[in-house]
Amino acid sequence: MGRGRIRAVTPIPVIEGDGLAKTFRLRGRTVHAVRDLSLAVRAGEALGIVGESGCGKTTTARLLLRLEEPSAGRIKFLGEDLTDRHGAALLRYRARAQLVFQNPFDALNPRFTIRRSLLEPLHNFGVPRAEHAARIEAVMQRVRLLPAAAWLDRRPHELSGGQLQRVVLARALLPGPLLLVADEPVSMLDVSVRAGILNLLRAARDELGLAAIYISHDLALIRYVCERTIVMYLGRVVEEGPTAALIATPQHPYTRALLAAVPVPRVDQNRAPLPIRGGLGEADADPGGCAFRDRCPYAYTRCETEAPALRQIAPDRRVACHLMEGW
After folding, report:
1. 127: left (phi > 0), else alpha (psi -120 to 50), else beta?
2. Are the CB atoms for 323 and 254 separated by under 8 Å?
3. Does residue 25 form part of some domain?
4. What per-residue confidence (pLDDT) applies to 28?
5. Residue 78: which of 137, 139, 13, 34 has the closest Cα?
6. Within a domain: residue 156?
């Protein structure tokens, strides 16, 4: 769509977060949504961020997109610090870092035609008017809504959920981003159309050389689209590594529980009970130890008093757990 692309994984990350933290004040409480999180995603690479609702994965994405201001830490884009950028500099970054929303029914103005919804980012990011028609035609071809003329004058209520999500993806691709963040991109869609949307996302990443971040609670989805995955719990990374290895040999009890919660293909198939108990704790206090200890079947005295550090256990694996030895 008009610009050259980095088509392979490169040494310089497209997006980096270093020591990111985010706190909110809610009704007199301080909520620690993200704590001391670092990550890097290169061109042509897909990173998954998984965890239960409330673990901080969406807040992490909003920090990286500069939709939220970090309480601590730095954000870099192509090696340049953009933590303190505002105004025109921030607008230029947002043209190159786009979000695919979870709910396509809420992501588009119901009063706008599809054409007007697609023209909006081109106007906002200063794309020359002479390029508009060609860009829209090309992006409609990329998301497989053809012929384009058959769709552009419709309004959102005339499209299905899968068709709307294709439009949302088209709108995100139009400014020519280098970073694409997809927040639960298929959770609102019928199972029958999810694979088609995921294939479009993978094709866009591969063909355009995008850095991609997928937010999900579904490890089956993450396994399909991501080479690397980080697992978050109450704002902290508890495990990180190549997706295939992380799923094959999970090292943290929470990762093991997320895998045990993945639906089985047959309703009459026996499955072991979840290896954890209770629900997600509170993020408004210093846990004074491991935040996961109240749900962990392996917790012992050290877990009560010492928060585990995120340690390197292999060249490409990190885990924050006192009990990983021997698993």
Report:
1. beta
2. no
3. yes
4. 81
5. 13
6. yes
Strands 317-319 and 311-314: antiparallel
pLDDT at 214: 96
- The answer to whether 155 and 114 have CB atoms below 8 angstroms apart is yes
The answer to whether the beta carbons of residues 53 and 33 sit under 8 Å apart is no
pLDDT, tens digit, 9 for 90 and up, residues 35-72:
999 999 999 999 999 999 889 999 999 999 999 999 99
Read off φ and ψ for residue 207, nearest 5 degrees.
-75, -30
Instruction: Name the E strands within 187-327.
Output: 211-216, 228-233, 236-242, 311-314, 317-319
Token output for 72: 């601590």
The pLDDT value given to residue 260: 83
- The domain tally of the chain equals 1
Tell me what pLDDT residue 51 has: 93
Q: Which residues of the chain have pLDDT under 50?
A: 1-7, 326-327
Q: Which positions ≥6 away from 27 have C-beta within 8 Å?
A: none
For residue 302, tell me if it sits in a domain: no
Tally the C-alpha atoms within 13 A of residue 85's C-alpha that lie toward its C-beta: 20
pLDDT score of 2:
41
What was the pLDDT predicted at 7? 46
Domain interval for residue 154: 15-253
Nearest 10 degrees: Cα torsion 196, 109, 77, 197: 0
Within a domain: residue 307? no
d(CA 294, CA 307): 13
The CATH number assigned to the domain holding 23 equals 3.40.50.300
